[in-house]
Structures are given as structure tokens and as C-alpha cells.
Amino acid sequence: MTTTTAASSRPEPELRGQTVVVIGGSAGIGLETARRARREGADVVLVARDPNRLEQAARQLQASSTAALDATDPAALARFFADLPAPIDHVMVTGPGPHYAPLAEASADDVRREIADHVVLSLEIARNAAPKMRAGGSLTFMGGTGGRRISRELGLVSAATAVLPPFVATLALELAPVRVNLIAAGFVDTPLSASLLGDQLDARREELRTTLPIGRVVGPADVAALAVHLMSNTALTGATYDIDGGQQLLSH
Q1: Is 64 exposed, middle or buried (0-12, 13-18, 19+ CB in 10 A)?
Q2: Domain segments of the chain: what residues?
Q3: Phi/psi at 181 (nearest 5 deg)?
Q4: Is the pLDDT of residue 63 over 70?
Q5: How many angstroms separate the CA atoms of 102 and 83, rounded?
Q6: What is the mean pLDDT of residues 129-150?
């Protein structure tokens, strides 16, 4: 009879020896993705705007390094990647939150900012990161599913939502063998969601618990699990992966 020890039955960490850069890595989905990547053996580099939150996150995760910068600043972003030791394996970008406003009320600057925040930011990151990445590495961007509905309230969000899947698919062809994927999330219970909903947060959580097919609210750890899978599964590129607990299946 063969005896299997606990150590030998434990699966090999999927990201051992790899380096994961998380932009927006000090809170919410980014922080959880960095935490899961660490559990899978990766070295993590955290990037965020707030230096205090960044320092706290780095201590929690024993991050390899950090950079406090505004990722929407092209010069700062270029300097960060230029100074980053090569090679790196994966970059996860959580991106800015949505800006809800009717189209008729949007200024030209609002339109430029909404599109730039989602598309131009992703392109700048891809341009700067790809030359330092190993073949088979991955870029993972965050989008959403809610903007697929058309409504007066959503405004520019629907346009920004629609442009990301073909943009990511095109990047996957241009940057190959670096892989590029998009995570499209519904409601995720994060500090960003709390700031957007304010005193309506608890009611929204309860509504989702009672209506979603999964019977619970999607959390940052759920998205992090998907993000790390996209990093480790080298057959995945050019696609959009929805994670919303079945929210799109419900009538609005």
C-alpha cells in the first residue's frame, strides 16, 4: 500500500517563479488578485495612487516592490515600466471606476476622459509592458457587464463597455505571444462599489442575495480567482470572461 504524504499531495503553485504586476493593487479586486498570486508562488509588484494604502498592502503581501503613481499619466507609466527589472510575466489592470452621466450632460472633456480611462490607459500599459514580458505571459484588463444595457442613466459607460472586447481581441493578435484578456464583472462588493452606492449599498447587497442564481454577492476573491486562472492557463487569449453571478440572466 502506497502512503501519500500531505506535502506530496499538495498541488504545485501555478505561478511559482513568475512576476505579477498589479496596477490598482492596493485595494479591492487588485489587492485580492495580488494576494491570490502570492499564494500561487508569484512575486508581486503593486502599483497604486495612494502611497499609504500601497505601503499597507505591500506589508500584508510582502510585495517585491511598489510604485505610487497615477497610471493615467503616460510619462509616469512609461518611467515605471522602463525602471522595472525584466522579465515580468503578468500584468493585471483594475482600471478606474465608471462615470455615470447622461450623454446630453457630458462635455467634450467628459467624453475624452471616459474613453481614455478605459481604452487609452489600456493601450499605454500594453505598449510599455509587452516588451518586458515573457512569451506566454498575460495582460488582463477589467471591464463590466452592466454597461451592455442601454439607458439614459448609463450614458458614456455603454460606449466604453462596448469598445473594450474588440480592442482586447485586437491587442491579443498584435502582442502575441503575450496573451491579452478582459474580465467583465457585474456588481462586485468592493470599496469602489461602496463609494458609488453610499447608503444604498446594503439594499443592493440584499437585492442581489435574493435574486442572483448563485444566491450570494460576487466578491473581490471571486474575480481574483478568475484573474489568476487567466494568468496560468496559457491557452486563453483575446477573449472576454463574464463574472456576475448570473446577473445578466435576470430581467431589468
Answers
A1: middle
A2: 14-243
A3: -140, 165
A4: yes
A5: 41
A6: 91
